[in-house]
């Protein structure tokens, strides 16, 4: 019979390198004296992740990690603030799509009446909930895990979990759009719009595919083995959206504001990550979008 640790490690092989890489970044940020947030659970995911985390933290990915700099910390803080502002403004439901190892249900100071829905695959929740239960993570909101494939009819599963489309909702689409083909992206925005009451809010991260072509990424890819995590991520990265999410949202009744990484880095007095520095030739772009449904 497998031990709980063996079961967690087995499940972890299916979660994917991206969720663990982001958890490692959150754990690193938590150790800083000038941290932008505190995520004490992130380190537990890193410990449970084992070899997959070590792969991301290996010498082969050093250039890429240097290039991305504080990206994940900046992104996390941006969407933390977005969600707290949205719930403070009356959104009583939060939906985190492709939630991965997100811990906001446990670490943010939610208003008393907020319900948080996390949508992801069953293997993700198997690993995640195993770690959370082992460490007795307390939560200050009604968290509901929704098992669904975002390429399919996930809305039905969300409704079955108790989601009310008549209530203002704060949606979060973080670290997802780049992995979806254009048709799936269009379907995702349409489904969110159909489920969004007036005054709902939507946070979206949109990364240009040029991230794969920056000099730092290319040097890292050359240094990596063909079965390395970087090549796996490159194969998954589609980002075929011909119409950027901000433009799509604006054309479908959302008022969207866009913040890019250099602006966010200056706001929090952090160095602009080299891969996103507009003064560096071949830089990539990441748009962090906050939109309101009217």
From TrEMBL:
Its EC number is 2.1.1.-. The keyword Transferase applies. Pfam families: LCM (PF04072). It is an enzyme of class 2 (transferase). One of its GO terms (biological process) is methylation. It comes from the Bacteria. SUPFAM superfamilies: S-adenosyl-L-methionine-dependent methyltransferases (SSF53335). Keywords: Methyltransferase, S-adenosyl-L-methionine, Transferase. The keyword Methyltransferase applies. Gene3D superfamilies: Vaccinia Virus protein VP39. GO terms for molecular function: methyltransferase activity. Exhibits S-adenosyl-L-methionine-dependent methyltransferase activity. NCBIfam families: mthyl_TIGR00027. Belongs to the UPF0677 family. This is S-adenosyl-L-methionine-dependent methyltransferase. It comes from Streptomyces phaeofaciens.
């Amino acid at each position: 019979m497998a031990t709980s640790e063996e079961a967690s490690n087995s499940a972890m092989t299916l979660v994917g390198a991206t969720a663990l890489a982001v958890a490692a970044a959150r754990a690193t940020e938590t150790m800083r004296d000038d941290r932008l947030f505190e995520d004490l659970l992130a380190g537990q995911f890193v410990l449970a992740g084992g070899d997959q985390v070590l792969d991301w933290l290996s010498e082969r990915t050093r250039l890429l990690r240097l290039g991305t700099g504080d990206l994940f910390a900046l992104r996390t803080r941006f969407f933390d603030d977005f969600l707290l502002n949205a719930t403070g403004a009356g959104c009583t439901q939060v939906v985190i799509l492709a939630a991965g190892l997100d811990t906001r249900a446990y670490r943010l100071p939610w208003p008393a009446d907020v319900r948080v829905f996390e949508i992801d695959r069953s293997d993700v929740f198997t690993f995640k909930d195993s770690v959370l239960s082992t460490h007795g993570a307390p939560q200050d909101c009604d968290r509901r895990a929704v098992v669904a494939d975002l390429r399919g009819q996930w809305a039905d599963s969300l409704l079955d979990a108790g989601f009310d489309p008549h209530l203002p909702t704060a949606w979060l689409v973080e670290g997802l759009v780049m992995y979806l083909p254009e048709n799936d992206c269009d379907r995702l925005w349409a489904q969110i719009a159909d489920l969004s009451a007036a005054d709902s809010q939507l946070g979206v991260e949109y990364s240009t595919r040029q991230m794969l072509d920056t000099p730092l990424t290319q040097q890292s890819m050359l240094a990596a083995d063909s079965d390395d995590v970087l090549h796996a991520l490159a194969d998954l990265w589609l980002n075929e959206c011909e119409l950027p999410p901000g433009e799509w949202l604006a054309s479908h009744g959302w008022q969207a504001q866009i913040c890019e990484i250099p602006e966010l880095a200056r706001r929090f007095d952090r160095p602009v990550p080299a891969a996103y520095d507009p003064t560096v030739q071949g830089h990539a772009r990441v748009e962090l979008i906050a939109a309101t449904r009217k």
